């Protein structure tokens, strides 16, 4: 079962690009990589999901190298409202571990 | 916006009381989940369901129980609340295990 490792916390200034990397050395062939965002006192919110190479949506980009042993969530030009906890999850549609969130990365954006 | 609802949002209750936290979704999702999270701490999966009449325990041992009699409804029950049950409880649903999960607003439970 894939297990993820990500930094406990990160700091950034407004307007900067933030890259959060997640390691998942034991990722299985059928596993997808999914990122969620959680604000205090709210439930997590889906940000992006990918399998390989690069995925981009209106919120973020997800970069996945060829070996898929890591992934990087990229948030362009962050604002104060991007201060949140970001979770990296790995799993497939048959795996209960697809929704184990772990500790996540606490991102603090300051002026 | 996700159509998943939790009630109540906040609950303060005395020790020994029986409580049921409600969770309903209108998306027709088969998979539903309950998580427990203390402020600033990790999100722990305590129960999940593959569909009607299916319930499984998650990674974190919990004294709560769940039922899934209807697709849209996944209530969580504590037979005898204790102060150690004080926490936020989050309900979620997804079409499949690995697909996007939608979360409710949560129930913040305080047992005094």
In short:
The complex is a heterodimer of chains A (111) and B (112). With 111 residues, chain A is mainly β. Chain A has strands at 9-13, 18-23, 32-38, 45-50, 53-56, 61-64, 70-75, 84-91, 105-110.
Question: Can you walk me through this structure?
Answer:
The complex is a heterodimer of chains A (111) and B (112). Chain A has no helices and nine strands. Chain A is an all-beta fold and 111 residues long. In chain A, a hairpin with a 5-residue loop joins strand 6 and strand 7. Chain A is globular and about 40 Å long. Chain B has strands at residues 4-7, 10-13, 19-25, 31-37, 43-49, 56-57, 65-66, 76-78, 87-94, 101-103, 107-111. Chain B is globular and about 35 Å long. Chain B is built from no helices and eleven strands. Chain B starts with a strand and ends with a strand. The chains are: A mainly beta (111), B mainly beta (112). At the A-B interface, strand 3 and strand 4 of A face strand 5, strand 9 and strand 10 of B.
Features:
heterodimer, A: about 110 residues, mainly beta, five-stranded mixed β-sheet, four-stranded antiparallel β-sheet, about 45% strand, globular, B: about 110 residues, seven-stranded mixed β-sheet
How is the topology of this model organized?
The complex is a heterodimer of chains A (111) and B (112).
Chain A: E1 9-13, E2 18-23, E3 32-38, E4 45-50, E5 53-56, E6 61-64, E7 70-75, E8 84-91, E9 105-110
Parallel strand pairs in A: 1-9
Antiparallel strand pairs in A: 2-7, 3-4, 3-8, 5-6, 6-7, 8-9
Chain B: E1 4-7, E2 10-13, E3 19-25, E4 31-37, E5 43-49, E6 56-57, E7 65-66, E8 76-78, E9 87-94, E10 101-103, E11 107-111
Parallel strand pairs in B: 2-11
Antiparallel strand pairs in B: 1-3, 3-8, 4-5, 4-9, 5-6, 7-8, 9-10, 9-11
């Amino acid at each position: 079962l894939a297990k993820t490792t990500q930094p406990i916390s990160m700091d950034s200034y407004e307007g900067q690009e933030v890259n959060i990397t997640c390691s998942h050395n034991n990722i299985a062939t059928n596993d997808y990589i999914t990122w969620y965002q959680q604000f205090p006192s709210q439930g997590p919110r889906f940000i992006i999901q990918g399998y390989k190479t690069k995925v981009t949506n209106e919120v973020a980009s997800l970069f996945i190298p060829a070996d898929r042993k890591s992934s990087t969530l990229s948030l362009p030009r962050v604002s104060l409202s991007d201060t949140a906890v970001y979770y990296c999850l790995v799993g497939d549609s048959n795996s209960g571990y697809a929704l184990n969130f772990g500790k996540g990365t606490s991102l603090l954006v300051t002026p | 916006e996700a159509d998943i609802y939790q009630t109540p949002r906040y609950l303060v209750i005395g020790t020994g009381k029986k409580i049921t936290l409600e969770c309903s979704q209108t998306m027709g999702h088969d998979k539903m989940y309950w998580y427990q999270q203390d402020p600033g701490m990790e999100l722990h999966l305590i129960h999940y369901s593959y569909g009607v009449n299916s319930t499984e325990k998650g990674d974190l041992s919990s004294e709560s129980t769940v039922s899934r009699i209807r697709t849209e409804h996944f209530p969580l029950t504590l037979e005898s609340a204790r102060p150690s049950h004080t926490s936020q409880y989050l309900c979620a649903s997804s079409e499949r295990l690995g697909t996007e999960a939608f979360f409710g607003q949560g129930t913040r439970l305080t047992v005094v």
